[in-house]
């Protein structure tokens, strides 16, 4: 067993080369930067630059993560864009109107609207202790999944989702089929493009991923051609 760490992308490249013949490699998603060269050299993949997503149309941002990084991203986005808080307490007390969330998002089309579950880590912990962590998590995921599905049904074509479990719930609700991996937005977070009847672009990020301006950056890169 060998445990290593990295300070730069160059370190990841060297680690990847050293792991060429390892039967099992595990780590953060950034390790893929170093492993891909091995797959190319072995003829298992072709090196290429992902094509631009080029997906335009209505946009929406959903954030179900309360990580410090996501909260900072929400705060930054709120400086110049419309945001809507979804109280965890209101959700657990059945006081959240899903249609109000949809109306907010549609009413601010073109302005990069964001809906997010409010609450500091301490508030989230208190809600989890009161209602049960699994119950709170399932309720949030179900809400965001239903909202995402309805938004796409109503024409949203660019969707950014923050939170690992939230992203999983959204993908399950959308059932988009095969997705093409597009350009990278920030390390570890690419654009995903779905074809078929719904030509949509998705950005799915875990809570602690992405720069502070991730939300606007993601939407802009989805539309780039």
Query: Largest beta sheet: what is the strand line-up?
Result: 2-3-1-4-7-6-5
* Whole-number mean pLDDT: 90
Determine the N-to-C terminus distance.
45 Å
Shape verdict: globular
**Low-confidence spans: pLDDT under 50, at least 5 residues?**
none
Q: Strand content of the residues, in percent?
A: 15-25%
- The count of helical stretches stands at 9
Radius of gyration: 19 Å
The proportion of residues forming helix, as a percent range, comes to 40-55%
Helix and strand string, N-terminal first? HHEHEHHEHHEHEEEH
Biggest sheet statistics: 7 strands, mixed
Q: What is the strand tally? A: 7
Secondary structure class reads alpha/beta
List the helices and strands and how they pair.
Blueprint lengths: L8 H10 L13 H10 L17 E5 L4 H11 L4 E5 H5 L5 H10 L6 E5 L2 H11 L1 H21 L4 E5 L1 H11 L4 E8 L2 E6 L5 E6 L8 H10 L2
Parallel strand pairs: 1-3, 1-4, 2-3, 4-7
Antiparallel strand pairs: 5-6, 6-7
């Amino acid at each position: 067993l060998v445990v290593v760490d990295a300070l730069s992308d160059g370190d990841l490249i060297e680690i990847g080369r050293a792991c060429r013949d390892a039967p099992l490699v595990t780590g953060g998603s950034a390790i893929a930067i170093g492993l891909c060269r091995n797959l190319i050299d072995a003829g298992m993949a072709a090196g290429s630059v992902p094509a631009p997503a080029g997906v335009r149309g209505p946009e929406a941002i959903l954030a179900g993560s309360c990580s410090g990084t996501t909260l900072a991203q929400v705060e930054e986005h709120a400086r110049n864009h419309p945001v809507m808080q979804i109280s965890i307490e209101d959700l657990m007390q059945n006081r959240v109107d899903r249609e109000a969330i949809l109306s907010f998002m549609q009413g601010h089309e073109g302005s990069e609207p964001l809906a997010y579950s409010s609450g500091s880590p301490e508030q989230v912990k208190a809600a989890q202790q009161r209602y049960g962590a699994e119950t709170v998590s399932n309720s949030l995921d179900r809400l965001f999944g239903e909202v995402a599905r309805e938004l796409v049904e109503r024409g949203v074509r660019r969707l950014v989702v923050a939170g690992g479990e939230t992203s999983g719930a959204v993908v399950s609700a959308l059932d988009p089929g095969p997705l093409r991996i597009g350009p990278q937005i920030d390390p570890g977070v690419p654009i995903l493009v779905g074809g078929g009847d719904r030509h949509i672009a998705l950005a799915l990020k875990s809570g602690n991923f992405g720069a502070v301006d991730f939300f606007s950056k993601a939407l802009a890169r989805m539309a780039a051609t």
